[in-house]
Amino acid sequence: MTHTPTLLIQKFSNGDASALNQLFELVYDELHSVAKKQRGRWNGAETLNTVALIHETYLKLWQNQPNQIENRRHFLAIAAKAMRQILINYAEKRSAQKRGGEFTSVDADSLDLMADDKAARELLEMHETLNRLEKINQRQAQVFECRFFGGMTVDDTAFALEISPATVKRDWQSACNWIYGELNR
Amino acid sequence: MDSNKDQTAEKLAERLLDYPEPQWDQLIEEWCSGDDELRIQVLNIAAQNRNARSFVEEFQRKIYSLTKSSLSSDDDHPDQIAGYTIIEKLGRGGSATVFLAENEKGEKGALKLLRGIGLDSWSRHRFESEQHILASLNHPNIAKLIEGGITEKGDPYVLMEYVDGIPIDEWCDRNYLGIEDRIRLFQHVCKAVHFAHQNLIVHRDLKPEHVLVTKEGEVKLIDFGIAKLLQPEHPEIAAFHTRTGMRIMTPEFASPEQVRGKQITTASDIYSLGVLLYLLLSGRKPYRISSTSMLEIEKIVCEIDPIRPSEAATGGTIRVTTDFIDDFFDPEVTALRRGLEPAKLRKQLAEDLDRIVLMAMWKEPHRRYASALSLADDLENYLNGEPVIARAPTLRYRVRKFIYRNKIAVAAASFALFALAGGVAGILWQSHLTKLNAEQAELQAQRAEQVSLLLAELFEESDPTKANDGTKSAREMLDQGFEKVQTELVDQPAVKAQMLGLIGKVYQNLGLFDQAKTALDMSIDSFRKVGERSPQYVSALLELANIEFRMGMLHQAEISTREVLELNMEFYGEDHPEVASVLNTLANIYGEKGDLEKAKSTLRRVIEIRRLDPEPGSNLAANLNNLAILMHRSGELEGADELFEEAITIVKNTWGEIHPYMAFTLNGYSGVHQELGNFDRAEEKLRQALEIGRQVFPGEHPFIAVVLHNLGKLFETTGNFTEAKEFYEQGLSLRRHSLSEEHPDLAVSLNGLAGMLIELGEPEEAEILLREAIIIRQNLFDKSDWRIAKSEAHLGRSLLKQGRLPEAELLLTKSHQSLLVSRGEDDAHTLNAQRDLMLLLEQQARITEFSE
Q1: Binary contact (B56, A176; C-beta < 8 A)
Q2: Eight-class DSSP state of B305
Q3: Domains in chain B: boundaries
Q4: Stretch B541-568: mean pLDDT, rounded?
Q5: Has residue A105 been placed in a domain?
């Protein structure tokens, strides 16, 4: 990679919008590779520790880089977005693979393998719902993204979005209410 | 806290958010002490907030389990492949990452690494054989496939010639190419596509990003046939189920048949070429699609006619999906980029070019240009000022008229046509598998084209305005074609055989099995006469076997399948997955025939073949499961137990605990334990199956009802009738919801629940259910079928319990007799009926005694 993350953030701060995309790509890729290494530690039903994952990704990307507050701030928001994208890409792939087929007790061959399908479908629905929220109230949607996809704490979210923790709490609750209402209509 | 008293409940609820949730209740008490109304209001809002939070948190947990699988695919790549060193990442597509690579000679390649495709043995084989075919595609305008294969990690990859170019539309615009130059450039594209089609390769994903122009101004098509490699397909499903296509990534260039997930053919590429030409000429795409809703995409691509390119170029309104904000379009700039003014551009595109583009973009594949070459030729006609063949408006009008007059018939007819087109494509693709040499392949392709032309003709001549008043149905059209083929193709037996095979398939798609069988029999006969044992012959045979199986002609189905098997063994060798898949079909036939021994030994052979595969995956687990079920049925409980355990281990290692296959195998496994008398274990396994089933299937999935019913059955066996009734009831209500009123499984549930109602002293309720079950079974089964007798015996018992002795006597005598014949005297159902009959006689005797 020719661009360091710090440089990209500087470029972005200086008004170069494409730097943000490059940074996103960088974080996205790095999340993947860090997650792959962590994967060896997962087993059974244990779920992924997103916070640890994001932290490790951060350390990796900013190795030997000055640990400026701005770096971390931008990084966190982008990491949540990247996590979301990783999940959505996967869910889309899953639901595209889905096939029909009815159960018969004799011929299991005709059955599709769709362990994650239900969750994938629901996630895509949630993704679309969140897209709608983004149009209505962008900040609420961002808070939700950080908390839900990034697994970030209230304080991390407040730091990343440069708002007060109290606002994060209120936005989080409002976004939850909205999502809950939309998905259970 | 008095100061809070006048605050609204909402404000208070909002304040709660600053505190941890466990403290909420206590805080509400403090803040609202003495004001019950306010307290209740706040409690309500807080409860809603809690609900929403816990819903989201629960959701988050579920999603994180997904994260694991999603992150398992990654971008790490081998340093070297096929003598090429990987230099840098170029980009990422849906499920592929592209890298730039270079060999020692400094030749550049684009390496496409496909991730998370999960190749099973069969797909792996197909991938290898197809990349082989793609590699043989040698044309100056097509980027060459250097090599394809599987990395050490098991990810499939393709290494292609690296093309340093830009998308054709951009190139034309940057160079201010006039209309005629654009057409000339586009003709090169057509010719390259045609070349590939002649080599039986369909691109499947033609769009500007795949049609590049180099610095030298040379057209290069990339990713030829790669889309096909990305599509996993299961042989076991293909054998007896219709195939489903993939959903495509670029809906704006996808043909209606692609969007619908139907067979993709050379005609699909012609459609995409049409869209590309539309874009090059008018500067716009015929539709703008960004909706994530497949339904909306399908509606637009399949139903809405695009406006003419000449209109589009001058600012006409393009159809867009609801969520799409159309790009700013400037007719002046567009015209300028073509060296014209808007009015002149419109004039140049109007008439001929409009027609050519729209002809390539017909919704119905057979109405498009027959080949990419004829599209190029028609453009040549235009350039030379000669009349273009795309001038045929009357046909369109005729079809329109026909549609309005007879909507349903047309729907069926176009369905039939899709199927026919699919048949032709099938030929194209199947030829691959036999690795025909180029000459033979071309012959096949020519014949395929001849067949598709004949088919088009056949349907056009059944035009309603000519032949009748428009009431002609797809069925009649097909009948007519069937007759014509028989009388008119006498001197071309090979073509005739193929046509008959296709017609047979259409009949089958329409559900007309008798006609389908007749046509296929004739087709096979014809093939045999010319001594042809081509893939088309095998395909017709397999289709015939399918129909015979569905018609219950199991013996014939067996014969046909066996022949397919032999031919496949010859083509592929004995231990090939393809052979295993046909053997599996054969095992199904044996199973249906009741020949459990043969079914079992056949499946054992299937399993043997699968075990040769280093990564047998899903197929092996499924085969083991199926064999275990058969062994269970024939009473080999211990053997079945072992197989189930192996299947469970495989599923667990491959996909983990939460997986449909886990649910299936646990369900079957529990059946064995029930029979062995291990009721606790059986219950445990069934409850696991239920829990997994509920996680992986939608709530109304038939499988859930199966497990619920099995739980009912288990409790019935252990004498826990109340519990059994509960589960039977749940199973029944699910089935009432998801199955048709005549479904046999519904009768099974009705019968089970009724049995429990009788035991629990509610024979009147049971009677209603049983009468429903009997009607269902009478409609489905032969009069003497034991299942009818079983329901009737139950009904007899319920009447007996109600004291309606004469009616009960009639039913019990009849059903007992029937069960004696069909099930034998030792069968549990027969014995039950006999027991009830004795009870009845006793009661009658008592009554007689009493009255005397």
Answers
A1: yes
A2: P
A3: 2-66, 83-162, 165-388, 397-551
A4: 85
A5: no
